[in-house]
Each structure stands twice: as structure tokens, then as C-alpha cells.
Amino acid sequence: MMNNSILSQRRWFGFITRLIMSISVGISASLVLFMIIYLLVKGIHNVSWELISTKPSYINDQIGILPDILNTLYIVFMTLVIVIPLGVGSAIYLTEYARNKKIVSIIEYATETLSAIPSIIYGLVGMLIFANSFGTSLTAGALTLAIMNLPTIIRTTQESLKTVPMSFREGGFGLGAGKWRVVRTIVLPCCADGVVTGTILSVGRILGESAALLFTAGFAHSLNGVLDAFKEPGATLTVALYVYAKEQGEFEVAFAIAMILMLLNILINFAVILVQKIFSRR
Fold first, then answer.
1. Cα(144)–Cα(40) distance, rounded to whole angstroms?
2. 62 forms bridges with which residues in the sheet?
């Protein structure tokens, strides 16, 4: 009789747990779908070829976001080129090579602390260091964003490296491979998902950042070439959204930019996942 009572309690507990989890998933999915649909409805009517293919002109009273789109792509590319090698390399050293556990714990604590610092603080530090060194430019903005996203890449890669079984490493050593060869050919391919996760999180933060870039990259809407763009100030889509909505009251343009930002984020994340699958097949 007691066993039946305990079994019944477990069934009720399992049912309530599944119900709560289902409700949580439903609410989260509903909020995401609502935001996506709301942005599409509000923004799609304001997107035009003229808007996305021209630069703004105060003389002709014309609004264009082509420079902002290009600046966003430039700064995402440059930030990832800087932060991925630094973050992955740091995670490999801390997980595979470092022997002093106290120093490792101090570094891990420092990276966790850096991830909790508000972006406006990064912007001020980036303005004092990078903007004074390189001028207000996309380079200064990319370096600032690289420091902001470094803790994310390090922690996600570290956790992924720790999930690789030690037997994989021992098998490589048993075949006569050196430490770096084992890490490069066995460990890293097994933890590619962690690197991709960190990259996707970083892309989302790069695309959504505005406070730090206002201090370091500026908010110029000038159209520059690929090489000249990194030496000149420029507004990303997020900064342009802030300027058009807050400073100029162009909410239709702001919603169009928000929709483009959302689609751009989805496309970049899809490209990152596609690259990871191509490399994993090799």
C-alpha cells in the first residue's frame, strides 16, 4: 500500500514538473515569436531598395542605411578575427597546458568578472585607450568589442574542452602523437560545437551593442571603401537605430533597421553553423 502511495506521488510530481517545463517553453517560444512577428509587421513596410542601397543625404532629404550595413559587417568580421584566436587559444592553454591551478582559477575569476562589466564601461576604456591610439574608428570599436566578447569565447570553449574524454587524449599519446598534435587533431574537432556556441553569442552581442561603439566608433554615416573603413568613424546598424529613433524621431526607419538587424543576425549565425559543419566533415 505504501509503495502504491509513493508511486502515485512520483507520478504526480513528474506530471507537475513536465507541465511547468512545458508552460515555460511555451511562454519563451511565444515571446520570441511575438517579437519576430512584431518586428516583421512593423518593419517590412518601411524597407525599400532605396533605403538599403543609398547613403543618407541631408541636402536631398534622403535616408539611407547602406553605410551602416557595411560598417556592421566590417566590425563583426574584424571583431571575430581578433577574438576567436585569442579566446580559443587562451581556453586551450588554461585547460590543456596550465599546471598552476591557483593562477588558472584567478584567470577564470577575472574572465567571469569581465563578462559582468556594463558595456558603457568598456566604451569609456576603449575611448581612452583605443580611440586615443587609432582615433575614433571601426578599428577602435572592434578592439573594444573583442575585449567585451573575450570572456564568452574563453568560457564556452573551456567548458567544451572539459567534455572531451581523457581517453581520447591518452589514445593519441599512445600512438606517439605530441601534445599539440593531439589538441589540434583530436580535442579541438570534438569541441567545435562549443566554439560555435561562443561565436554565435558573440555575434549577437556585437550586433546589439551601441553604448560602447558610440564612444569608440562614432556615428558617422559616410560610405567608405573596405580598407579605408577601418580607419574612419562609422555607425553600425544598432547605433543608427538609436540615432534615428531617439535623436530624429524616425520610428519607421528604426523599425526597418531592427528587422534588418534581426535577419542579419540569423544569416550570420547560419553561416557560422554552416562553416562548422564543413570543417567537422573534414
1. 31
2. 57
pTM over 0.70: yes
**What pLDDT score does 27 carry?**
94
For residues 156 and 246, the answer to whether their CB atoms sit within 8 Å is: no
pLDDT value, residue 270: 82
Q: Which residues of 117-133 are buried (b: 16+ CB within 10 A; e: fewer)?
A: eebeebbbbbbeebbee
Residues in the chain: 282
- Asked if 175 and 167 touch (Cβ cutoff 8 Å), the reply is no
Q: What is the mean pLDDT of each run of 10 residues along the chain (282 residues)?
A: 67 84 92 88 84 79 84 90 91 86 84 84 90 88 91 88 84 82 84 81 84 85 78 86 80 86 84 72 62
Residue 120 CA to residue 209 CA, distance in Å, equals 10
Beta carbons of 161 and 194 less than 8 angstroms apart: yes
- Looking up cell 531598395 gives 49
Q: Would you call 161 helix, strand, or coil by DSSP?
A: helix
Q: Which amino acid is at 102?
A: K
Q: What CA–CA distance (Å, rounded) separates 244 from 253?
A: 7
Cell of 176: 606517439
pLDDT, position 47? 83
**What's phi and psi for 222, nearest 5 deg?**
-80, 150
Please report, as a single letter, which amino acid is at residue 34: F
**Amino acid letter, residue 137:** S
CA–chain centroid gap for 124, Å, is: 20
How many CB atoms within 10 Å of residue 179?
13
d(CA 52, CA 46): 11
Site of grid cell 549565425: 269
Residues facing 27 on adjacent strands: none
